[in-house]
C-alpha cells in the first residue's frame, strides 16, 4: 500500500459525502486523523465493512483491546471520550456482550414493537396537532417540531424517563455527537449523561414501572448475577442515544429527500410505492450515522491488501457504504425509491445489529405517512443547498429543516 499522511476528518461535517468519496478513492481502508491527533483506520467500502462488522477478530471494547486507551495515551478529556469510556452492550466483548445483548434484547421483542405502535400514533398525532396551529405561510423548523421530538419522546417512554429529564439529557446527547467540542466540554458531556442516568435509575429503584429501565434493574443473567452498576447506567444511555439520534436524522433526511424529489413523493403518497421503500432508500443514500467510533483489531487483519495491525482503532464509514459504486453503480448517490437494490448496513450487521430496528421502522412508517397525508402541500422554505449540516462527522443531518406546511 502506498504510504500517505492520514487525512484529518472535517470536524464540522461540512461535506460528509464528498469526504467519504475521497476516502473511498484512497482504498477500502485508509488512515485518518480524529480530534486530538488520534490516528485510526477508516473503512470505506461496502464489502470490507460488511466483512469487518461480523469478524470475531474485531471488537468494540477499548478497555480490552485498544493499547492506546489502556496505557493512558488517550487522555480522559479527549474530545471523543464518551464514545469509548462506556461499559455497556455496545462496547462489551465476548461472553459479556452475549450476556448484555440477551438482557437488552428481551425488551425489543416483536410483541413489544406491536404494543408500542398505539403510542407512536398518539405521539405523532400530538405533534401534527401542534403543527396545525401554525399560521398559514409561516416557516416552521420541522426538525425541531417533528423529526426531533417524535423519536426522542418515544425512546424516553421506553426507558421510563420524564419529559423534563429527557429535555435536559437531549442537550447532552447533542453535545456528544458534536465533533467540534473542546476537551472541557467533552468531560462535561461524560459527567452529564452519567449523572442523568444515575438519577433515572435511582427513581426507578424507588418506583419501578413498566419500562426498560425497571426491567434491567430487576434483570438477572442465567447465573443469577446482576448487571454491574456501570453496565446498567451505560446500557440505558446507549438505548436512549442510539434510539433517538439516528431516527431524528432519518426523519430529517427522508423528509428532505421527498421534498426535493416531487415525482418520487407522488409515487409514495399515491400508494404506488410503499413507505418501506422510502425507508430503505433513505437509509442507503443518507445513512443517519456517518462514522461510528470505534472498533479495534484483536489481531492483525488483512483487508484487500491492507493490514490493520493488532490493537489499532477502526472507524466504520457508514456514509460510504450505501453510495459504493461497486454495489450500486454510477447512480449510487441518487435518491431513487424505485431502484431494485437498496442494500444498506445502516442498522449494522453481525453481532451488533440494531435491536431496535423493528421499532425504528414502525415509527418511521407511522410518522412519515401521517405527516405527508396531513400536509400534502409541505415544501422546503429554502433552497436545498442552503440547508446547513450538523457540526459533526459522526451524524448525518441538518441543523434545521425550515418548511412551509402548505
Automatic annotation (TrEMBL):
Keyword annotations of the record: Heme, Iron, Metal-binding, Monooxygenase, Oxidoreductase
Pfam families: p450
InterPro entries: Cyt_P450 (IPR001128), Cyt_P450_B (IPR002397), Cyt_P450_CS (IPR017972), Cyt_P450_sf (IPR036396)
Keyword set includes Nuclease: no
PROSITE patterns membership: CYTOCHROME_P450
Metal-binding among keywords: yes
PANTHER family: CYTOCHROME P450 YJIB-RELATED, P450, PUTATIVE (EUROFUNG)-RELATED
Family under the similarity heading: Belongs to the cytochrome P450 family.
Protein name: Cytochrome P450
Organism: Amycolatopsis roodepoortensis
Amino acid at each position: 500500500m502506498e504510504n500517505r499522511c492520514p487525512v484529518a476528518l472535517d470536524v464540522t461535517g461540512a461535506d460528509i459525502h464528498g469526504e467519504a468519496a475521497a476516502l473511498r478513492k484512497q482504498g477500502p481502508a485508509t488512515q485518518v486523523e480524529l480530534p486530538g491527533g488520534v490516528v485510526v483506520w477508516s473503512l470505506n467500502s461496502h464489502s470490507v465493512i460488511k466483512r469487518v462488522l461480523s469478524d470475531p477478530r474485531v471488537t468494540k471494547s477499548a478497555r480490552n483491546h485498544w493499547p492506546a486507551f489502556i496505557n493512558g495515551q488517550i487522555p480522559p478529556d479527549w474530545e471523543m471520550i464518551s464514545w469509548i469510556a462506556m461499559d455497556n452492550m455496545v462496547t462489551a466483548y465476548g461472553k459479556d456482550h452475549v450476556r448484555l445483548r440477551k438482557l437488552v434484547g428481551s425488551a425489543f421483542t416483536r410483541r413489544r414493537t406491536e404494543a408500542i405502535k398505539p403510542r407512536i400514533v398518539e405521539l405523532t398525532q400530538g405533534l401534527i396537532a401542534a403543527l396545525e396551529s401554525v399560521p398559514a405561510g409561516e416557516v416552521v423548523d420541522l426538525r425541531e417540531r417533528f423529526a426531533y421530538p417524535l423519536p426522542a419522546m418515544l425512546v424516553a417512554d421506553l426507558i421510563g424517563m420524564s419529559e423534563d429529564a429527557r429535555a435536559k439529557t437531549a442537550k447532552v446527547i447533542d453535545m456528544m455527537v458534536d465533533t467540534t467540542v473542546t476537551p472541557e466540554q467533552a468531560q462535561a458531556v461524560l459527567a452529564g449523561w452519567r449523572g442523568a442516568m444515575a438519577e433515572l435509575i435511582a427513581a426507578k429503584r424507588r418506583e419501578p414501572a413498566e419500562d426498560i429501565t425497571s426491567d434491567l434493574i430487576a434483570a438477572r443473567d442465567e447465573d443469577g448475577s446482576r448487571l454491574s452498576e456501570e453496565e446498567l447506567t451505560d446500557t440505558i444511555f446507549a438505548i436512549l442515544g442510539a434510539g433517538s439520534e439516528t431516527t431524528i436524522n432519518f426523519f430529517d433526511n427522508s423528509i428532505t429527500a421527498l421534498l426535493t424529489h416531487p415525482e418520487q413523493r407522488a409515487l409514495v403518497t399515491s400508494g404506488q410505492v410503499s413507505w418501506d421503500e422510502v425507508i430503505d432508500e433513505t437509509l442507503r443514500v443518507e445513512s443517519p450515522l456517518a462514522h461510528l467510533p470505534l472498533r479495534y483489531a484483536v489481531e492483525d487483519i488483512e483487508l484487500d491488501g491492507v493490514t490493520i495491525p493488532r490493537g489499532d482503532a477502526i472507524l466504520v464509514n457508514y456514509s460510504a457504504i450505501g453510495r459504493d459504486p461497486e454495489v450500486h453503480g454510477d447512480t449510487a448517490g441518487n435518491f431513487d425509491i424505485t431502484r431494485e437494490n437498496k442494500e444498506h448496513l445502516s442498522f449494522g450487521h453481525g453481532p451488533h445489529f440494531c435491536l431496535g430496528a423493528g421499532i425504528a421502522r414502525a415509527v418511521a412508517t407511522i410518522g412519515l405517512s401521517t405527516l405527508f397525508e396531513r400536509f400534502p402541500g409541505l415544501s422546503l422554505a429554502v433552497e436545498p443547498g442552503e440547508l446547513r449540516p450538523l457540526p459533526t462527522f459522526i451524524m448525518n443531518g441538518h441543523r434545521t429543516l425550515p418548511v412551509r406546511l402548505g
